[in-house]
Design a protein that fits this description.
4 domains; Translation Initiation Factor IF3; 18 strands; alpha/beta
């Protein structure tokens, strides 16, 4: 299905949902109003009769005359006067032949469920309660009016909905026409034909994209000679904001989409929007140069937060001129509030913030996300939080939760059972196959994944407990337990395995020494176990080279996972003796649809292929992605397409 059709269907769906909600809300409001009218109608009649008949409480003829007068002039099913002393009926009028000749469908009557309303009033004989008048209103006339009103509203909403859909379809078709030229340009780049789009679209968003693509093409023409340098340049241009050095909106979309996938390592967390309070006003007051300097300083504040411990999985980006974004998986609500306070305080003390004389200088919106959420829902939730922050006096930030996804376990609960699981080695190994791209049945190795057994005996996936383990500083403990269990499994089933190591194990000298001691105590000659380092936690070059030599001396191998950011490592790969590089899944997802991703992976392949370094693609989800990787020449692939994590032999 084409993008135009998908967007058109999405617009139609949103229109239907919005108008359906509006229609149902209108019907419900009219129903409530009708019930109120019936109740008021009955009570007014009862009160009027009570006041009128009290002087004639001992005159049945007069009472009957008054009851008949009211009954014949209004919409009532029953009016009766009851003697309070013995509950005998003094006068009663009923409308047993209620008109059924009406144009209201039975299903509408059942849906509205408009019941008759009772009301009563007392007839007094001096200070004594002599009788009671009871009135039951007839809802039939209101049903007819409600039906006519509903039909009118429905016709109007249908008319507006059809017009909106047609207008939206026409606008989409008009605005997306330049995409054809952009697709041709992207396909040309994948064939090493660097063509520029001559007709620049008038739409600002598409114009910026086309101009950025044209700029990328011009730069690629001049920087394509050296393979590794070109790859580094391409990454910076495609995924990094030039002013602040943070990621740009494109990388934000890629990484957040990846984070929302229900997978082994993805955890719930929070998305933060940080937006300048008045960008236009700052430009007028400070000037463009100082405003850019303030935006750059704000980027520096966000970088400082990203550099703190246990935040390697976070992503900071500049989405647009004065708006920044933080993706913070594993963050709790309490920590999110604390982070927002720290950001607000840090931004307030910037020199240019003080010079602007604005308070606050920026607003912060915090929205919760959970793997499985829709990215638009997450963005909408965070936008709503930002709007609340902007509308709340006295505080520059607000947080919105997705209550259905919140964990009921307290921090102490997690700490207790994780500690118990690590002490008692309540680990369960799961394995995810890694195959060749040419034949998914040919397994290169199995990736070892952790499951901790909780107090209820359930196996908890890594995405749920890893944020807590990092927060508690127990990553090295988990690594040691996983390594020992993997070696035991390998002794029973001598098949190639790969095991990830955390950054804490690599940074802490004592943990690294314990790791090497375990390897030396269990030497191997087959090299069936590969220890994988995360590119985000790579130690300095000298330390990394020494670690590689020590691991290989014990009969094990080193690999690099989540590769794709630090391309300067390519120049040192010949000295490391790595078994392979695993390309980060954010560069693999939808590679069959995005020509720029394919060009990027081809550049990495050409650089690594020159030193005979195998490449393995992570998070391969579709056959189309696998076909592209196969065409490029990537050796291996892992992901749900190849196989999901499962116990051994499952």
């Amino acid at each position: 299905m084409s993008l135009l059709k998908q967007l058109f269907l999405a617009i139609c769906l949103l229109i239907v949902i919005a108008f359906t909600g509006s229609f149902l809300a209108g019907v419900e409001s009219s129903r409530e109003q009708a019930i109120s009218q019936l109740r008021s109608h009955a009570q007014d009649a009862a009160t009027a009769l009570g006041l009128s008949m009290s002087p004639h409480v001992d005159d049945p003829a007069m009472i009957e005359l008054m009851v008949s007068s009211i009954f014949d002039s209004g919409y009532f099913q029953t009016i009766r006067v009851v003697n309070i002393a013995d509950e005998s009926i003094i006068v009663e009028r009923k409308n047993d032949n209620i008109s059924k000749e009406q144009n209201v469908p039975a299903w509408f009557i059942a849906m509205v469920n408009l019941e008759p309303e009772w009301a009563d009033a007392l007839l007094m004989r001096g200070w004594e309660q002599a009788a009671r008048v009871e009135v039951l209103s007839d809802p039939q006339f209101l049903l007819a009016k409600l039906w006519d009103s509903t039909l009118g509203s429905l016709m109007w909403l249908l008319l507006v909905g059809v017009f909106s859909a047609l207008l939206g379809g026409w606008l989409l078709r008009t605005q997306l026409r330049p995409l054809d030229s952009m697709v041709d340009q992207a396909e040309a780049i994948s064939r090493r034909e660097f063509l520029s789009v001559l007709q620049i679209p008038r739409t600002p968003e598409l114009r910026r994209v086309v101009q950025a693509m044209n700029l990328m093409v011009e730069k690629l023409k001049t920087l394509f000679a050296e393979e590794a340098a070109r790859s580094e340049k391409l990454r910076i241009e495609a995924y990094q904001d030039s002013l602040t050095g943070l990621a740009n909106r494109r990388l934000l979309d890629i990484r957040l989409t990846e984070q929302l996938i229900v997978s082994e390592h993805n955890a719930a967390g929070y998305l933060l929007f940080v937006r300048l309070a008045d960008l236009a006003g700052l430009n007028q007051k400070l000037g463009g140069q100082k405003t850019d300097a303030l935006i750059k300083a704000m980027g520096g504040v966000i970088k400082q937060q990203l550099e703190k411990p246990h935040r390697s999985e976070w992503l900071g980006s500049r989405s647009r001129a004065g708006e920044f974004t933080l993706v913070a998986p594993g963050l709790t609500g309490e920590d999110a509030d604390k982070l927002a306070g720290e950001l607000a305080a840090a931004l307030a003390v910037l020199d240019l913030s003080k010079e602007s004389e604005m308070s606050p200088v920026a607003y912060i919106g915090i929205g919760a996300f959970t793997p499985g959420d829709n990215i638009k829902v997450v963005f909408g939730r965070t936008d709503q939080a930002l709007a609340q922050a902007q509308g709340t006096l006295g505080r520059s930030w607000a947080r919105l939760e997705d209550t259905a996804s919140q964990s009921s376990n307290a921090s102490q609960d997690w700490r207790t059972w994780i500690d118990d699981a690590l002490k008692q080695s309540k680990l369960k190994l799961f394995f995810q196959p890694v195959s060749t791209c040419t034949d998914t049945g040919k397994i290169l190795h199995q990736k070892v994944l952790a499951r901790l057994i909780d107090p209820q005996g359930e196996a908890v996936a890594a995405g749920q407990f890893l944020p807590w383990i990092e927060r508690l500083g127990w990553s090295a403990r988990l690594d040691m337990a996983m390594l020992e269990n993997s070696i035991k499994h390998l002794n029973q089933h001598p098949k190639a395995l790969a095991l990830s190591l955390s950054g804490q194990t690599l940074k802490d000298a004592e943990s690294q020494a314990s790791l090497l001691q375990i390897l030396r105590n269990n030497p191997r000659k087959d090299g069936l176990l590969t220890l994988e380092l995360d590119e985000r936690h790579i130690p300095p070059a000298a330390q990394l080279e020494q670690l590689s030599q020590s691991v290989r001396a014990a009969g094990y191998r080193l690999g690099l996972q989540h590769f794709g950011g630090n391309f300067s490592l390519i120049g040192n790969l010949t000295n490391l003796g790595l078994a392979y590089l695993k390309i980060d899944g954010s560069y693999i997802r939808a590679i069959d649809q995005e020509a720029d991703k394919r060009a990027f992976i081809e550049a990495v392949f050409r650089a690594t292929n020159s030193i005979d370094m195998p490449l393995i693609a992570e998070m391969v989800e579709t056959q189309a992605e696998l076909d592209v990787l196969k065409d490029i020449g990537i050796e291996g692939a892992m992901g749900r397409l190849v196989g999901s994590p499962a116990p051994w032999g499952a």
